[in-house]
Design goal:
Distance between the termini: 111 Å
Strand content: 15-25%
Shape: elongated
Structural class: alpha+beta
Radius of gyration: 46 Å
Helix content: 25-40%
Number of helices: 23
Strand order of the largest sheet: 19-24-23-22-20-21
Number of strands: 24
């Protein structure tokens, strides 16, 4: 109750609900304690119109007329005696004429708590005291136990409903709101009920008025988004469903509003929008990558075509033929590098971790060969690249393939970006250690944005046109970063005063013992690093010692023990057979016998190339264009083939299915070498589980093919 005047305090002692009204407007100014207990707390009705907000529409005309009559002096009340207000024994009902009484007026009752409002019948008497108008209300609705119980049940249903609800009067005032709405917005009933709804709605008033207009024309609104300001000042997104409770004469009574918190939907939609934007950005990045990938593939293909034309039209010109052969090999290696870079990134993105067996090699010559190879492609740059190392000819134990790839990508990036200055490739044994080697590529290309470099390391699809990989796909930094992590290291970037340095520190034991001598390679492969196969992606194990890695033995299923002494071999572990292993191979007259190979390959050109390579090794090659044709030939001549070269993807019957029939149904132990463009570890494992003995990942050269065949047959082949 507000601060009452001394005269009004006396009304706290009468049993009726008493309300003081503003003359002319009928707005509530004060109420007594009985009014607060029976109808509503003063704070919830202060400033409301008794007639327009609390009296039911049908009863309003007669109440308004009575109040007007009283104010005009038709009915008068006696003046209170003394300063204390009414006399101690005076009853205001006894001095008021019958004309001032309105019987059975349906009046809105809200209660002390945040309760669902209901109508009860009151007799209202209005009297004038000077310029003041007073209303005296006496409850006449019989409040039986059953009625109390029914009202409490109805109130509980709405007050404790799991959805927020409120009533709005015709003037936009909140007449009632349930507990769910109070909790949602954080207000107490005194702070919320009885206040204009615009006090809590920060949206444009025109929007709110538009909603009221829609409701006023008889429409029901659904899922209308609005914003409400909570008590702590936050804006909460809500959805409103509402319609109007109409009076019997069709006039507006109050709204019925149901509110749902829309914050979650707003967040989800924002997240979806962000995800869509991210997806579109990624799509554009991958589209740009695809365009560049096609360029990087088509360019060497064009070089191969032109080189082949050179060989065809100038076969008698030895110098020109040698040049064309060199171009063919360089273009083939470039194409292979592109494909394996993409294959490795896909593998990294799938969460696969390549297995990296360690073997001894000499580091400094490997680095020099990387530089020599790159300089052939950048001859017009005239940029000096210096290889510096304190390791000299010492042997290190590690994965040469990984070191070669990281150094090649980093050096290539520097060569692509630099216009003048120099590049230094440094490999240093850290002072006081025997196995900590720092490898760094330093250039004077003008420096780099370190933050941008870290983004490129993390996201291989970002900015594929970045200048650091202008001559490639833009995947180099990501590949380098991932490989160094697999090696247990970290790729670091430093840039200052136009000088940038990419470096990593790797653990590789150092010794003076020379590595095992590699198998002599033909002159055409002189540019390749000893024991390192440049055209293999990381999921194909590379070993310069020629021994099998531990993971290879895991591929051999139990039933394959019946196949005798045949070995499971990876094409990349055949590049460096030791002399002891070579001597263990069968020699003598057996080598002079023609070995028969079955080449199962659906691509006729590829089949012809393989057949020719096998013939150069002194073998007889037979062809099959799919798995079913291969089975037919094997059924016709069960023991007619010494080795099977098996493609995987073919029409009619694929290579995996064919291998299953050969091993399980035909019980043949003929060595089978997978020959495929597939690269994933999953496919490789599947091949060995089915009983294959070797794995060749296209593209391969003749020496790699010879090595794989020699391994599974345990004998040397003719070299040509």
């Amino acid at each position: 109750m507000g601060v009452s005047s001394p005269a009004f305090i006396a009304f706290n002692f009468v049993p009726e609900a008493v309300v003081e009204l503003e003359a002319g407007t009928g707005k509530i100014i004060e109420v007594n304690e009985t009014f607060e207990k029976e109808l509503a707390p003063f704070k919830r009705v202060e400033g409301l119109s008794l007639v327009n907000d609390l009296v039911q529409h049908a009863d309003r005309p007669r109440v308004v007329k009575t109040m007007a009559d009283v104010m005009e002096g038709t009915v008068e009340a006696p003046e209170p005696e003394g300063e204390g207000g009414l006399g101690e024994n005076e009853n205001p009902w006894g001095v008021v004429k019958e004309k001032s009484t309105n019987h059975a007026v349906n009046t809105l009752v809200m209660g002390l708590e945040c309760q669902y409002p209901i109508y009860r019948s009151y007799d209202w008497v209005f009297v004038k005291n000077g310029e003041r108008l007073y209303g005296f209300g006496r409850l006449i609705t019989p409040m039986t136990t059953a009625r109390h119980s029914a009202e409490r049940e109805l109130m509980d249903f709405f007050d404790n409903a799991p959805i927020a609800m409120h009533w709005l009067g015709g003037t936009g005032t909140v007449l009632w709101a349930n507990k769910r709405e109070m909790n949602l917005l954080g207000y107490s009933p005194e702070e919320y009920i009885g206040k204009p709804i615009m006090n809590f709605c920060p949206d444009d008033e025109k929007l709110v008025l538009k909603i009221f207009h829609q409701l006023g024309t008889g429409n029901t609104i659904s899922d209308v988004p609005v914003r409400f300001r909570t008590k702590d000042g936050r804006l909460k997104h809500l959805l409103i469903d509402s319609n109007v409770n109409w009076n019997a004469d069709g006039s507006f009574h109050h709204t019925r509003c149901f509110i749902r918190d829309d914050t979650g939907r707003q967040i989800r939609e924002a997240q979806m929008a962000m995800a869509k934007e991210k997806e579109e950005r990624a799509h554009k990045q991958k589209e740009a990558l695809l365009r560049k990938l096609l360029h990087e593939i088509k360019t060497p293909c064009n070089e191969i075509n032109l080189s082949a034309d050179m060989l065809t039209s100038n076969g008698q010109d030895v110098e020109l033929s040698a040049r064309a052969t060199k171009l063919l090999r360089a273009s083939s290696m470039r194409l292979s590098d592109v494909l394996h870079d993409v294959a490795d990134v896909v593998m990294f993105q799938a969460g696969s971790v390549p297995k990296l067996p360690a073997s001894p090699f000499v580091l400094k010559p490997l680095l020099q060969q990387v530089v020599d190879h790159l300089m052939e492609a950048y001859t017009k740059k005239h940029i000096p690249v210096h290889v510096m190392s304190n390791l000299d000819n010492k042997t290190v134990v590690g994965n040469a393939r990984c070191i070669e790839r990281v150094v090649r990508h980093l050096t290539k990036n520097s060569l692509s970006a630099i216009k003048e200055g120099s590049i230094i490739l440094r490999a240093m044994l850290m002072p006081g250690t025997k196995d900590q080697i720092l490898i760094a590529v330093r250039d004077t290309a003008g420096g780099v944005d370190v933050d941008e470099m870290h983004k490129l390391m993390a996201n291989p699809w970002k900015d594929t046109d970045n200048k650091m990989d202008a001559d490639g796909l833009g995947l180099g930094l990501h590949i380098c970063n991932t490989i160094t992590q697999v090696l247990g290291s970290e790729l670091k970037v430093e840039s200052a005063k136009g000088v940038s340095t990419f470096s990593f520190q790797v653990t590789m034991p150092v010794s003076d013992t020379p590595p095992p001598a590699p198998e002599p390679a033909p002159a055409a492969n002189a540019k390749d690093s000893p024991g390192v196969s440049r055209n293999q992606s990381l999921d194909i194990h590379v070993s310069s010692s020629g021994t099998e890695s531990e993971s290879d033995s895991a591929y051999q299923p139990a039933y394959m023990s019946a196949l005798g002494s045949q070995t499971f071999v990876d094409s990349s572990s055949t590049s460096g057979e030791s002399e002891t292993e070579q001597e263990s191979m069968e020699v003598g007259l057996a080598c002079e016998l023609k070995l028969h190979a079955l080449v199962v390959e659906d691509n006729i050109i590829s089949q012809m190339c393989v057949n020719k390579a096998l013939e150069d090794m002194g073998m007889i090659a037979d062809g099959a264009e799919n798995g079913q044709e291969a089975l037919d030939k094997l059924n016709a001549h069960p023991g007619g083939y010494d080795v099977i070269i098996m493609d995987l993807r073919m029409p009619v019957m694929d290579g995996l299915t064919c291998t299953g029939h050969i091993r399980k149904d035909m019980k043949l132990t003929t060595p089978i070498i997978a020959f495929t463009a597939e690269y994933s570890m999953e496919i490789k494992e599947q091949c060995f589980e089915l009983g294959m003995n070797g794995f060749l990942s296209k593209p391969v050269n003749k020496d790699e093919m010879r090595g794989a065949i020699e391994k599974v047959l345990n004998r040397k082949l003719k070299a040509k």
